[in-house]
Amino acid sequence: MKILVTGGAGYIGSVTVKSLQKAGHEVTVFDNLVYGHKEAVSANLIVGDLTDKKFLNESLENIQFDGVIHFAAYALAGESMKDPNKYFYNNLIGGLNLLEFMKDRKINTIIFSSTCAIYGTPDTLPVNELESKKPDSVYGDSKLMFENILKWYDAIYQIKHINLRYFNAAGATIDGSLGEEHDPETHIIPIAIKTALGNFPSFELYGNDYETKDGSCIRDYIHVEDLAQAHILALEYAIKTKKSDSFNLGSGIGYSNLEVLDEVKKVSNVNFKIEIKDRRAGDPPKIFADNKKAIDVLGFSPKFSDLETIVKTAWNWHSSKK
After folding, report:
1. 11 tagged catalytic
2. By the 8 A CB rule, do 109 and 160 touch?
3. Which domains does the chain have, with CATH numbers?
4. Which of the residues 35, 119, 139, 221 is marked catalytic?
5. Which of 43, 38, 40, 44 lies closest to 177 in space, CA to CA?
6. pLDDT of 40-94, one tens digit each?
7. DSSP class of residue 73?
């Protein structure tokens, strides 16, 4: 199939592009390279911004697509609370322009990169797809708003969608070719690894007094290659069944921040310093996925999402870049 991948130069996008190509699909990437990396793209790349509707239509007018995977969005929850306009404008206007492009070109399938942030602090653990949606951030709300937009484009124009609600993407490709590199970096595993590599004097841990087994937050980590495979399964499912649906993507296991830091210390063989800071606003004490629906319906089978594999692949990638 011919697939358009927006945001395909980013961390999860570039790994998914590679997996799509390995599965025999022809891929075009559309990315503004604000956070993406040109060198990570293994497919035809068009540099552009989804908020520029004219350029979007003109740059893709000679290519017909069978489906779209939509990663392109701003995704820092903390930043979204300081600059809500940036997030609502980019994540909603860009998405609307993409849907209008799809409507005009009669492209009827979109896989949407959503987030567990739409659930906010969950009422029930593990979190399934029926959990109440009450985002704690502008970022999470922008994703939920776009899920609602997708619902109406299905009802009115029959554009089928799959919302993939990620928990915490982590790790690097098994072959060591692609990994996680954000600026600024906000994720625990790459920051801990960079601390072990000597880039930072200590790791700052936000809160050690939560009501959890060791006082630190508990999160669900899913390996980026498992995440990429889920997008292909979702695309195949949507095209075959012509149904819209939503799936939580996680390992189904919760690891505490201190467990993650211990694993980084073990893999790196560096006993770096941990500095305890105050809690951050909006951090739920624990959140991890019920991934049963993705397993049962999509055939999702995470192979690399144990903590050891996640940290080892991330360490191999980051340490090779030093």
Report:
1. no
2. yes
3. 2-169+222-249 (3.40.50.720), 171-220+252-288+304-321 (3.90.25.10)
4. 139
5. 40
6. 999 999 999 999 999 999 999 999 999 999 999 999 998 999 999 999 999 999 9
7. S
